[in-house]
TrEMBL record:
Organism the protein comes from: Shewanella piezotolerans (strain WP3 / JCM 13877)
EC code(s) of this entry: 1.1.1.133
Catalytic activity field: dTDP-beta-L-rhamnose + NADP(+) = dTDP-4-dehydro-beta-L-rhamnose + NADPH + H(+)
Full protein name: dTDP-4-dehydrorhamnose reductase
PANTHER family assigned: DTDP-4-DEHYDRORHAMNOSE REDUCTASE, METHIONINE ADENOSYLTRANSFERASE 2 SUBUNIT BETA
Enzyme class: oxidoreductase
Listed GO MF terms: dTDP-4-dehydrorhamnose reductase activity
Pfam family, one: RmlD_sub_bind
GO biological process: dTDP-rhamnose biosynthetic process; O antigen biosynthetic process
Protein family per UniProt: Belongs to the dTDP-4-dehydrorhamnose reductase family.
Role summary: Catalyzes the reduction of dTDP-6-deoxy-L-lyxo-4-hexulose to yield dTDP-L-rhamnose.
């Protein structure tokens, strides 16, 4: 039996933080948050049917404390001290970020403040208290010239201010607290909650007859709820390994195996994304195709036109960030380490994860309209 774990999440109103809260809630862990909609038992069952691993991501005794930007500004060290005193966490998950990729080009100061200085302050405080830090980073740290999915050993070479600020954040976290910090890079996140490409497309399909979408940038769209399960599994495994205790078999987590030939600086670094990759255009097409099978979600047939990044830039007056042409991530390391079984949606193709999210969204919408 593992000792209870108290987890503090920054950026608590954001997309990934809300997914963590949902998954913790489904595991019957205690969720403390100012903004989080608890769901009914039948919706819980629906998500368990789609992604069975949600059930045992945490245990009943574990606690998740979500702190919104208003409650904790990660760039304010006094506010961090105050939050640590109030929550007394065993683990911090840093979901706070400056994510406006284009705006970062003209406001690099804000991007570096939130994506570099904030994580550094958090790491310093975690180090002082011996707290584990899980820091989330992005596929945009890569230049996009590789012809296969990036793994943890590949050299980052960001093209944009956002990518540079995220890489600087990773490096700061590593420098301050090498042994008890884990960096998880992910990509193209979407969920039922929050701002993301799937929601943008859903709105455009409902409002427009035609939408142009970039067809020469490739990546791995990732369901935020799947990432949340991976994060909790990793925390449970690391805690069990560090505390040197056995795991409750019902949690279905392997004790951390020894990794041969994997002891370089990428040791505490993990990539997680859905399998395979697509362009934003193919992603948009798949969203529309899956939605068209359900007439409640979409009523018109909007035409999707492929365009190049150059044409997209030409239509915009704002300075746009350079994005990698190919930034798919290879999740083999984390999936192998956590013993994710074959056939699980956690290591499935992006199309299957998208279907899982849209099925879940359908169920939530049906319940809301009752
Ligand atoms: N979204 C994506 O496609 C991807 C995201 N990532 C990474 O995943 C992580 C989570 O992203 P996601 O949940 O999608 O992002 P969101 O933008 O949904 O959430 C980020 C949250 O951070 C908060 N925040 C901003 N500045 C601060 C601050 N100084 N102190 C505390 N909170 C702050 C924001 O609050 P407010 O809005 O009130 O400012 C917001 O609630 C980030 O690290 C991101 O870089 C990686 C790859 C892809
Ligand atoms: C709205 C829209 C966007 N696009 C393009 C622009 C852009 O290249 C791509 C995605 O646009 P978005 O604004 O959703 O997201 P973008 O900022 O490119 O997404 C990135 O966000 C950061 C935070 C990450 O870390 C990355 O992994 C990635 O998810 O789609 C179109 O081609 N047509 C459209 O109608």
């Amino acid at each position: 039996m593992q000792a209870p774990i108290k987890i503090m999440v920054t950026g608590g109103n954001g997309q990934l933080a809300q997914s963590l809260a949902l998954i913790a809630h489904l595991s019957d862990a205690k969720v403390k948050a100012s903004s989080f909609t608890r769901i009914t038992a039948d919706i819980v069952q629906a998500l368990v049917n789609i992604l069975p691993e949600v059930r045992n991501s945490l245990s009943e005794q574990d606690e998740l404390h979500l702190l919104s930007h208003r409650k904790l500004d990660i760039c304010d060290s006094a506010a961090i001290d105050d939050a640590f005193m109030r929550v007394n966490p065993d683990v911090v998950i840093n979901c706070a970020a400056f994510n406006a990729v284009d705006n970062a080009e003209t406001d690099s100061e804000s991007a570096f403040k939130v994506n570099f200085e904030g994580p550094k302050l958090l790491a310093e405080r975690c180090k002082r208290d011996g707290v584990m830090l899980i820091h989330i980073s992005s596929d945009f740290v890569f230049a996009g010239e590789k012809h296969s999915p990036y793994n943890e050993q590949d050299l980052p070479e960001p093209l944009s201010v956002y990518g540079k600020s995220k890489l600087a954040g990773e490096q700061a976290v590593r420098q301050v607290i090498a042994s008890k910090a884990y960096i998880i890079r992910t990509s193209w996140l979407y969920s039922c909650q929050g701002n993301n490409f799937v929601h943008t497309m859903q709105k455009l399909f409902a409002a427009k007859e035609q939408v142009s979408v970039i067809a020469d940038q490739y990546g791995s769209p990732t369901w935020s709820e799947a990432l949340a399960v991976i994060i909790f599994k990793l925390i449970k495994q690391k805690e069990a390994t560090q505390r040197g205790v056995g795991l409750d078999a019902s949690l279905g987590i392997n004790l951390e195996p020894n990794f041969v030939g994997d002891s370089d600086s990428s040791d505490n670094l993990y990539h997680y994304a859905a399998a395979n990759s697509c362009s934003w255009f193919e992603f948009a097409q798949q969203i529309q195709q899956l939605m068209l099978t359900d007439d409640k979600l979409i009523k018109t047939h909007c035409r999707i036109t492929p365009i190049t990044t150059l044409s997209w830039q030409a239509c915009h007056e704002q300075i746009l960030a350079k994005r990698p042409n190919q930034s798919a991530l290879n999740s083999q390391r984390v999936c192998q380490q956590l013993g994710v079984r074959e056939g699980s949606l956690l290591k499935d193709k992006w199309q299957q994860q998208l279907k899982g999210m849209l099925d879940f969204q359908k169920i939530i919408n049906t319940h809301r309209s009752k």
